[in-house]
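Subject: Sanity check before I submit

Could someone independently write out the structure tokens for this chain? I want to compare against mine line by line before I put it in a report. The sequence has 413 residues.
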Amino acid sequence: MSSDTQTSENTVTRVLVVDDDPIDRLYCMTCLRRSESHSYEISEADSGASTMAVLEASDFDCMLLDQNLPDATGIELLQKIREQGKSAGMAVIILTGQDTVEVAAQALRGGASDYVQKRSVSTEALDRAVGNATQKVKLEQAILIEREVLAAANEELTSKHREIQNFYHQVSHELRTPITSLREFVSIVFDGLAENHEEHQEYLGYAMESCDRLSSLVEDLIDATRVESGKLRLREDWVPAGSVFEQLGRLVGGLARDANVQVRYEAGEGVAEMWADPERILQILTIFMTNAIKFTDEEGSIVVRASQVVAEDGRIMVRLGVQDSGCGIASEDQEAVFSRLFQVEKIENEASVGLGLGLSIAKEIVELHNGSIGVQSEEGVGSEFFALIPTDERQPEEAEPGEEAEGDLADAA
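---
Independent answer below. Compare away.
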């Protein structure tokens, strides 16, 4: 086996000449070297075994393959090459001394790009055959890639279509429920079926709850639209975790009491203030809390924590976590919980009411703050959803020369 290279300004075509007859092999190589229109990098082999060894070490654009080798026919060798995946992107031209249609048909059926009779071999004939065969393979490869791209695009469109259909279904379902309840309770009062003032107040209270539910659903839809269009804006300021916890307690305290769930707040001392939008931070924690309450049984517990951690890039972050003693999340679902409409796919769970937009909205808000979001969960034990929000500070050892470090860091898992 040997190799030689002809250089040119043109693209070099790598060709492997396979023939057990040294004279025929030399003649083919000489014809290729004489080409004035193409540049070839030529290698040679004299048997099926040596061909496999060469293909193991190098890639080629084209192979001129003798039909009759001592250890295999050219078509048999081509089949073996294809089975081992060594022919991808390589054109194969069968060289044959037989002038029959049957041999040509066998060669093309076996995967060859073309065939050339040995008595017709010349520089012009090989130039034409190699050029056409390599171009044909390139076109086939391009078509294959385009098909894969189209298949992926089609799958994505199909997925989006299913998501939209699920979304419409879920929106109509979730809106219909509070609207029906609202109409029923108002009708009772309007038709005079409530017997006294207390019943009036009770039914109107139920109607107000339905109004609140409708308002929450509409807000989720508006926020999802803002996220999708890139119009969600932050109004950042220095935000202490303690103040957000106070607002959160007032906002969801009644919901926790109604669910008979105990809530504890832990804001570690010395935790830096966040550089964030206070309303959006409250929204993130509210989403975490409402989910925690929803999936926690009566007499369960929820812990809301704020601690200080250091990110891999040295930034000081505030870690806001909501840990519950609820049902937990399967490991295979933990990455998917932040995708839009995840709950729709888990509709068999009776607790999974809502549009399934909350956690996806929380994820977008956290990422707008240049932070990160995550979940740690174990089925039957509980879950902790957390967000890392920047403080725009860095570790003391990474401070600029002359700057003073401001306090110690309290790392929290």
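---
OP: Matches mine. For the report I'm noting this point. The first helix runs from residue 22 to 33.
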